[in-house]
Amino acid sequence: MKNNKTKLKNIFTLNENTKKRMKNFLQKLSSSFGFVIILMPIFGLFYSIGSLFENNLAGDLFKNFGKILFSNIGLWFCLAIIIGFTSNKGAAVYSGIIAYFVFNIFISVFIISTSANRFNIWFWNNLEEKIFLTKFMFGDIKTFNTGVVGGIAIGSIIVMVYNKFKDQNLIKSLSFFAKEKFVILLTPIVSILLAALFIIIWPIIGYAMMWLGKAVSKSPIGLDAFIFRTIQRMLIPFGTSLLWQAPMWYSSIGGNVSDYELPLLAEYIFRTNPNLSDNTIDAIKSSIQQFTNFNDYIDYLKTNWGSEINNLFDIESNWKNAFDEFSKIEGDQFLSYAALTNNYISIQDCWNVGLRFSRFITGGFINSMFTLPTIAFTILLFEKKGERRKELGVYITASLTAFLLGITEPVEYMFCYTMPLFFFAIYAPFNGLFAMLTSLFKVKVGTLFSTGLFDFTLSGILPTLNNQQTNIWILPILGIIASGSIFLLTYFYLKFLKKKNIKNDIINEVNKTSIK
């Protein structure tokens, strides 16, 4: 019986080599994602500048610069995966670009528009364009909006093909096509096969992701933010936090607005028509359930409330286009920033209809700007007096990196390995707790790159000055509370460790004396 239990345990136990391979794989994947994340500050800055200069050449120029990254996010994730897993081999990156183009063009050929905002592809009929389609690159070619998922899938296939066939030899007459050139020859074939697979399964994935995103968005307020931030910080020592973060920030799991067209329109009407009576507002809200089409709803509003709603012409002319652009965006990071910089859909409108955008982001500002600099300062206090001055520069640099840029790893790596109990049992849940509080207090600050002062200004202060209801004033109050709380927790934990170490030193000294 004991032998059977031992055998069973061995079956489900990972050996050290497997653990190392898994850890190496996850670190490479996380590092690959970093190639895209690092691009976001500059392209986000371009987009922010463009948003400040609406309807002129400068605004269009900078906005289009920003869209180079955000509108083609799949391509950059594809190339990042290839760079990370092939040691930045030029032939592999070249194959990735070819694969991305072939993949999307193959899908686009089979898209058949049937009616307004509907299309068929192979055996799938009557799919919604605004949910499944996007424009390829900057042209009018429509393709599946696979985003990050498609980019990672293409990149992964190219990595596998490259690593398997990069040293492939052929017969002498075909030797010109051997090795890396053979990989390039295979690229269009595997890209077409992958595209065919996506045509079959992507509508299923799309509906599943929308269902999961809706479930997350309807979960109790604060609970989703607590779970997200706690797990995100727990994964930092393993270099895999982006694996957990990416779906929430960049895909439908983190948010999708496709089913909220009329509720968001109603919120815009209420916000821009303060003269409306409570009875009118209630009537407009209750009428939403009777309609599924924008034009039908506008006709209803004209007939019944045309004299009270003073901007129906503007709504009919511009709001629909604004929503159509907005509905193509998905993920908490992209949607929160889009709502904070939109002229027709505000982030408060989104929260009013149950779309709590920024809930996976805002808590990070407390961590970067308040919690981590405080932890660094507290650890510095416990350095030996002779070492404190020598280490001062390191602590200041790490703290400023977190505070200004939101890059938290330099501080976190100071204590995640040396104080694992503190990191996992105190620090990570502490982060989750304050993320929950930012959500409960409805603090709404987005991000372009990370959660430092730079983003706090661009994605928090500027939108607030532009009349967005962000409740940003609550964040520094929570930050000060967090700073004071984490100082006490860190101080007494370090004091406990110091006493424990002194006690252990005394015991060891006594044992040495006894042996002598």
Automatic annotation (TrEMBL):
Transmembrane segments: 29-53, 65-85, 97-124, 144-162, 182-205, 360-382, 394-415, 421-441, 448-466, 472-494
GO molecular function: protein-N(PI)-phosphohistidine-sugar phosphotransferase activity; protein-phosphocysteine-sugar phosphotransferase activity
GO cellular component: plasma membrane
Membrane topology per record: Multi-pass membrane protein
PTS EIIC type-1 domain location: 20-506
Family annotation (PROSITE patterns): PTS_EIIC_TYPE_1 (PS51103)
Keyword terms: Cell membrane, Membrane, Phosphotransferase system, Sugar transport, Transmembrane, Transmembrane helix, Transport
Single biological process term from Gene Ontology: phosphoenolpyruvate-dependent sugar phosphotransferase system
Subcellular localization(s) per the UniProt record: Cell membrane
Protein's UniProt keywords contain Transmembrane: yes
InterPro entries for this protein: PTS_EIIC, PTS_EIIC_1, PTS_Glucose_EIICBA
Name listed for the protein in its UniProt record: PTS system glucose-specific IIBC component
Protein species of origin: Spiroplasma turonicum
Gene: ptsG
